[in-house]
Amino acid sequence: MFMSTTNPTLDPEKAQRFAARTGQQLAAAMNCYLSYVGCDLGFYDTIRDLGPSTSTQLAAATGCHERWIREWLRHQACNGQLEYEQDSDQFSLTPEATAVLCDEDSPFYFASGFTAFAALRSAVDRLPSTFRTGLGMRYDEHGPGCACGIEKLNNYIPRFELVSSILPQLDGVVERLQAGANVADVGCGAGIALLNMARAFPKSTFVGYEISSHALARARNNLESWALPNVSICDAREMPLPNNRSIDFVTTFDVVHDSPYPERLIADIYAALRPEGSWLCSDIRSFPNFADNLADNPSAALMYGFSVMVCLSSAMSEPDGRGLGTLGFNIEVAQQMTADAGFSQFRKLEYENAINSYYEIRP
User: Fold this and answer.
1) Which among 5, 186, 296, 348 is most buried, taking Cβ atoms within 10 Å?
2) Average pLDDT per run of 10 along the chain, which is 363 residues long?
3) What pTM was estimated for this model as a whole?
């Protein structure tokens, strides 16, 4: 075994373990790109539909080159995403892998993360400059692929949990929505939460506000498909949130931590809400201090990485950006910022998941 002659305090066994872990992380990065290819070309869905398949069968079904598919299949099997049967030379998906990689209706679906990851390639080249200047990238600079990946990644809860499990925890909100209320979804993204609420409460009027042109395009396309008469989508740069206290209910989903000016955003929400209105704020779960995130937050490495690439970048895309980052809008920060804006009531909902916390905030 190699022994260091320049650092006598180095523990070779620990160094070997560290090197092995670094190799695993490199393999994981490679897998993100190759899994993106599998999603983009429909390989996973095709294997799900065909059942156990050889490279020749998958090539015929997808119209792709067999030799490239063979290498991709072998990589996926070595990575543990596909099963391999030696006697038949076939590759397959387990039910669990299917839920994660194929089924967009599954709470375990995560494949769209590969799409979002692949869209960040251009950001890597800009990071050295970003670190020197402090100026990050706006969401739109990541391209439409990032907006698509984030839409699908955040798809399940708006479709299956928001109306049935989250809104009923808010004091009086469901009753107001049933009777007819003015609702604003600030930072609506592709509009999935907005549309699901609007379909459930046809007597209410819903307006989505967004500044990303890629997200706006997806939201408008989704609205056209859903054909709901009680929904409109606004470019918030041209038609900002009204400041006349006319809104009954505001929602934000993973928005505040991305804003260069979160205090201004929160103040705008306060100015828009009726005195008896309420704000449902969903943001990333985190501890107030880094030591606790390091020790007890299993998603911390992923979240800090995503922050550097996307969220912190967005939050510092203006020269004087606040720079909260993915884990920066923890409950203590949220309570302080909302109180500073004039809100008097703050309550953490019992509903939460592995990624998000949910708050009911009132003037």
Assistant:
1) 186
2) 62 95 95 97 98 99 98 98 98 98 94 90 92 95 89 91 98 98 98 98 99 96 97 97 98 98 98 98 97 96 96 96 97 98 98 92 98
3) 0.92
- Spatial separation of the C-alpha atoms in residues 113 and 146, rounded to whole Å: 9
Angle at 158 between CA 152 and CA 162, to 5 degrees: 160
Domain chopping of the chain, boundaries: 12-103, 123-362
C-alpha Rg value of the chain to the nearest Å:
23
3-state helix vs strand vs coil in the chain, percent to 5:
50, 15, 30
Six-digit token pair at 253? 């989903």
Contact status, residue 269 vs residue 279, Cβ threshold 8 Å: yes
Residue 143: left (phi > 0), alpha (psi -120 to 50), or beta? left
Fold for domain 123-362? Rossmann fold (3.40.50)
Per-residue tokens: 184: 């604003």
Element (H, E) at 290: helix 290-296
The architecture that CATH gives domain 12-103 is Orthogonal Bundle (1.10)
Q: How many helices (H) and strands (E) does the chain have?
A: 17, 9
Q: Which of 216, 317, 338 is nearest to 259 (CA)?
A: 317
Cβ pair 82, 58 in contact under 8 A: no
